[in-house]
Write a structure and sequence with these properties.
The chain has 463 residues and is α+β, with helices and mostly antiparallel strands. The chain has helices spanning 64-71, 80-87, 97-107, 110-119, 126-142, 146-159, 164-169, 176-184, 194-203, 208-220, 224-237, 241-253, 259-269, 274-286, 290-299, 306-318, 328-341, 346-358, 363-376, 381-393, 399-408, 412-425, 431-442, 446-462, and strands at 5-10, 13-25, 28-35, 40-46, 49-56, 73-76, 92-94. α14 (274-286) runs antiparallel to α15, α15 (290-299) crosses α17 and α20 (381-393) packs antiparallel against α21. The chain starts with a strand and ends with a helix. TPR repeats lie at residues 396-429.
Length: 463
């Protein structure tokens, strides 16, 4: 099963889903996933704890889920944060609305319960959700807890602003002092209303003071995934060494997360942010991930120090291009840097890659690929050899020498073509027969090799 695929359980029925993206928004996390029939499911989490999942055909405008994917911190799948959300809540089981209510009443405060219910707009009939929130409001009123009652009114004003309850009760004089506090002294209510506090601080997170207060709250609640998500979002918005260092510290504290995946994802969004690109290069060198180094160096112009150049060069020397093919244009920048610093390594290294290129490219292409090196490094044997081969290819009178050069570069089929041509042009010359016998032997075709050896012997006897 792929990293972004998982199973959802609806009673005893298994539903295979593919995670598409996830949003982290105001204490909630939403995963959008698709079934094999292309049906869309939303998995709802509260502070990383799975609540339920529901299939839907469309989202209500201005619903929590719509806001989450527009205003929240959104990550495309596959992503380490999505992987951890799913793996830490396995198995994810769909539950009914009645079961959901029991779960919320058992595990959360009334304020949290009503706030969580708003997550399910678009998934559960809005009237059912509204009635549950309304009943909590009236319970507070009956108990004389007017502050908590006003919290419910504020929630209803956001969730169902056109209802008569929202319109009439929001202006109730009994709530006037609380309305003034929320309007004029909101920060004084942060301790009493943590949901309001997080909404306010998140909406003003571009302000450094608010951002730090939000971080402090998340740290107290040990909401480390939100901390990482916020740090990623801030780094993308305003790349800086300090912000990047903060993200690295967070990632180092949580070894269960794939930090390399996060850095690689960021590198596509921040291609000009050199501290990140250099860190990736170091990791790729440590992991001997040569193909990733090739791609990184193609898109970045930063300078390598001698130790990095040497480490990359060692990888190039160990690289087996026939079993690990790489695009020539990705390979070239690394070879160029390595042999510029260590010219004595040039011929042996270039020969290996030229042999590989000859399997898929013609001589003019390889000539052109080597040309910049030829201009900078005089008398490279492999460059001179390819130049010579191209001249011989254009002159059919000396296919013997061209075939011998192809043989030297392990191009046995091309060598056979050349020697066969030479044999037809010069039937009295034993050399093409000798080389055909030798080449077929090298190819492991002993029957053909012996046949050409016998022909050579007969030719020499007649001479």
């Amino acid at each position: 099963m792929r990293q972004d695929q998982f199973l959802l359980y609806d009673h005893k029925k298994q539903i295979s889903l593919k995670a598409e993206r996830a949003a982290f928004y105001l204490q909630g996390q939403i995963i959008e996933a698709f079934s094999e029939k292309n049906e869309v499911y939303y998995l709802i989490f509260y502070k990383y704890h799975f609540l339920s999942a529901v299939k839907t055909t469309k989202l209500r405008r201005h619903s929590y889920i719509e806001h989450a994917f527009k205003k929240g911190m959104v990550f495309e799948s596959p992503h380490p944060l999505i992987k951890i959300l799913l793996s830490s809540n396995h198995p994810c089981q769909c539950i009914s609305f009645k079961q959901l209510l029991k779960k919320l009443e058992r595990q959360y405060t009334p304020q949290e319960k009503t706030f969580i219910l708003t997550f399910f707009e678009s998934l559960i009939p809005k009237r059912d959700l509204f009635n549950e929130i309304k009943s909590v409001y009236y319970e507070y009123r009956r108990n004389g807890d007017y502050f908590s009652g006003y919290q419910m009114i504020r929630l209803i004003m956001e969730f169902a602003p056109k209802t008569s309850l929202a319109v009439s009760h929001s202006n109730d004089m009994i709530f006037s002092k609380y309305a003034w506090q929320y309007s004029e002294k909101p920060e004084k209510l942060f301790a009493k209303d943590p949901i309001f506090a997080e909404k306010t601080l998140y909406s003003q997170r571009e302000d450094e003071v608010c951002f730090q207060q939000l971080i402090d709250r998340l740290e107290k609640e040990s909401r480390w995934m939100d901390l990482i998500a916020l740090s990623i979002q801030k780094l993308i918005a305003s790349p800086s060494p300090d912000c990047y260092a903060h993200l690295l510290r967070l990632l180092a504290q949580h070894t269960e997360i794939d930090s390399l995946h996060i850095q690689e994802s960021l590198s596509f969004q921040l291609p000009a942010f050199l501290p990140l690109q250099k860190d990736l290069l170091e990791k790729y060198i440590q992991n001997h991930a040569a193909d990733k180094i090739f791609k990184l160096m193609k898109t970045n112009a930063f300078q390598l120090d001698d130790s990095q150049i040497y480490a990359v060069g060692e990888m190039l020397e160990e690289w087996e291009p026939d079993t690990q093919p790489v695009q020539p244009e990705l390979l070239y920048p690394l070879i160029k840097r390595y042999i510029s610093r260590f010219p004595e390594k040039a011929d042996k290294l270039l020969k290996k890659f030229v042999i590989s290129l000859l399997n898929t490219h013609e001589l003019p292409y390889i000539q052109n690929w080597l040309k910049p090196l030829k201009d900078k490094h005089k008398k490279l044997a492999i460059v001179e050899k390819i130049d010579m081969m191209q001249k011989l290819y254009e002159d059919p009178d000396d296919m013997q020498q061209l075939g011998e050069l192809y043989f030297e570069l392990s191009q046995l089929d091309k060598a056979v073509e050349c020697f066969s041509w030479e044999m037809e042009l010069k039937p009295a010359d034993p050399r093409p027969l000798q080389w055909l016998a030798k080449t077929y032997h090298e190819k492991g075709m002993d029957y053909e090799s012996d046949a050409y050896r016998q022909l050579c012997i007969q030719l020499q006897k007649r001479a």
